[in-house]
Amino acid sequence: MSGQDYERFIETKSLNIHIPNKFLLDQTQILDVAKCSDKEKYCFSELAYYSDYDLYLVTLSMKLTKDELKNNPTEQVLEGVLKVFLASINPMAAEFYGASSVLGENVNANKYSRESIILGVDADVEGRQYVGYARVKRGEYLSVSTSVEETNESVIQFITRLCNIVRSGNYRASLVEEHCDFGG
Q: The organism sits in which domain of life (predicted)?
C-alpha cells in the first residue's frame, strides 16, 4: 500500500510531499507480511528505499484510541511498539535484545538487507498525528535508538530532519556523516 492508499489508511494530516529517489518495494517479498486493509488497527503500510539517504524504511501505520493506550503517554507506548516490531524484522535489533528474529531468510538479501531496516511509525490517536522511528546503530557497540513526536511531518521528514539541516549548512563532513548515515 502506498501513495493515496497509504494516506487514506492512516488519515494522515501531513503534507503530501514528493521525496526524490524514493523506490517503493514489495514488502511481501522481503518481510513475508500481508498488505494493509482499512479494517486493521495497525499494519506495515509501506516499504521503501530512499537512495538520497541510503535509507531502507518500513512504515508501521496505526489507528489507536486513548483507551487502548491505557493512560500511558502516547510516545512511550509507540516507542515500545517500535522496539518490539524492530526486533522481529531486523536481525541486528533481535541480537541487541538477545532475541531471535522471527522472520526467515531475507528473500532479496542481495540488494536490501533487513539488518539496515529502519522502522517508522505513523499513528493516528483520535485525530492527533504521531510519527517516530526505531533503528539500529553499529559502531563500537550495537545500539537501538527510538524517537516519537506529535507532528504533521511524514515519517521520512522526521527521520531525515537533522540530516537535512546539517547537509544544507556549512558543517564539517564528519558531522554530516554522523547525522546522515542511515545504513545501520
A: Bacteria
